[in-house]
Amino acid sequence: MTGSPTRWSAATIAALGPLADADKATPMAAYMKDVAPFLGITAAPRRRAQRAVWAGLPAPDEAQVARTALELWSLPEREFQYAASDLIARHAGRLSTPFLADPIEALLTAKPWWDTVDLLGSAAVTPLVARDPGLVDTMWRWLDSGDRWLVRAAVQHQRGLGGRTDVELLLAMCAHVSDDREFFVAKAVGWALRDASPLAPGLVQRFLDEHPALPTVARREAVRGLARTSRP
């Protein structure tokens, strides 16, 4: 981190530092394949500490959210990236369309693993694309990027939308990467199909029939979704 941190960065660092637990840090890092060191703070106490210190600060504007997220992302311990994602989610309603390109795209590919990619998806990608359908063009660009984490974020960009899910778009994007056997991409395809199953089981089944070479991990998740949908 260069220069003076924002008020939100400084408060977050001060709140989380005393909660560090070395005994928990090692197994937490191992679970995430040592992509980053951990302080050793589980989600519940971390979020309580964040909420407490953020509540005493004014709401940041978009530029302050972006700068704070980048500052927290630059710190080594993974909890700071989780805090940055939570801060973005907390203020998602005030973020504009350009926020997806800067800083979200950069954050998705900085020290990436499924944990931060999925958190940023829920915090920013899904709400921003839902608010501005023109950003679907960005999702298609990500699908063709060759970066597994951008591909994963694009495939999952409608997760959690329920009845607002564009099933036809979701299936088109799944089809676009249906032959990608990279685990984290295939898993994302499976989850997307599973989420679509209760909304359009016939279309999901047809997708499976038309893509017999779909990776096993993707097919398994889709079949689970269809099985749940068919239960009385």
What does this structure look like?
The protein is mainly α. Helices cover 63% and strands 0% of the residues. It is built from 13 helices and no strands. It has helices at 7-16, 22-31, 43-55, 62-74, 78-90, 104-108, 114-131, 136-143, 148-155, 167-176, 183-196, 201-210, 216-230. α1 (7-16) crosses α4 (62-74) and α11 packs parallel to α13.
Topology (SSEs and partners):
Elements lengths: L6 H10 L5 H10 L11 H13 L6 H13 L3 H13 L13 H5 L5 H18 L4 H8 L4 H8 L11 H10 L6 H14 L4 H10 L5 H15 L2
Short characterization:
By secondary structure, this protein is an all-alpha fold. The chain contains 13 helices and no strands.
Q: Which oligomerization state do the chains in this entry correspond to?
A: single chain
How many helices? 13
Task: Say how many strands there are.
Answer: 0
Rg estimate, integer Å: 19 Å
Q: Unreliable stretches, pLDDT < 50, 5 or more residues?
A: none
Structural class: mainly alpha
> Mind describing the biggest β-sheet?
none
Give the overall average pLDDT.
Answer: 97
- Apparent shape: globular
One letter per element, helices H and strands E, the order comes to HHHHHHHHHHHHH
- Distance from N terminus to C terminus (CA atoms, Å) equals 55 Å
- Please state roughly what percent of the residues sit in beta strands, choosing from under 5%, 5-15%, 15-25%, 25-35%, 35-45% or over 45%: under 5%
DSSP helix fraction: 55-70%
Which features characterize this protein?
232 residues, mainly alpha
